[in-house]
Amino acid sequence: xxxxxxxxxxxxxxxxxxxxxxxxxxxxxxxxxxxxxxxxxxxxxxxxxxxxxxxxxxxxxxxxxxxxxxxxxxxxxxxxxxxxxxxxxxxxxxxxxxxxxxxxxxxxxxxxxxxxxxxxxxxxxx
Length: 126
Known about the structure:
Helix content is 33%, strand content 21%. The protein has helices at 33-41, 45-49, 54-60, 103-108, 112-125, and strands at 10-15, 18-23, 29-31, 76-79, 87-90, 97-99. By secondary structure, it is of the alpha+beta class. The chain has one domain (10-125). It is globular, with a radius of gyration of 14 Å. 32% of the residues are buried. The N and C termini lie far apart (44 Å).
């Protein structure tokens, strides 16, 4: 499969019973929603699977109009409900979710800065 963000290829990767695809160039991750749930609960999954440079991920996070590597439909941009600063792309047909390098590690762990950011966002919204 072709990476939706760069010219790389999505190559299969496995960690325990988790099966995903990782881009051989930008290290973005393509996974099914149920695999993402498993990844969040698996110890050390971020170390084994999210091996890319977060600076590359931050740069590629700005890429717009990307397509599902399975069906070719435009991917939706979504933010995580608990950490609204994290944006990822998902296939509206349910084929998968794309996380830029570093996003899964950020998504997996809530830091003190995330808590403060969330409090400030809520305060501004009221």
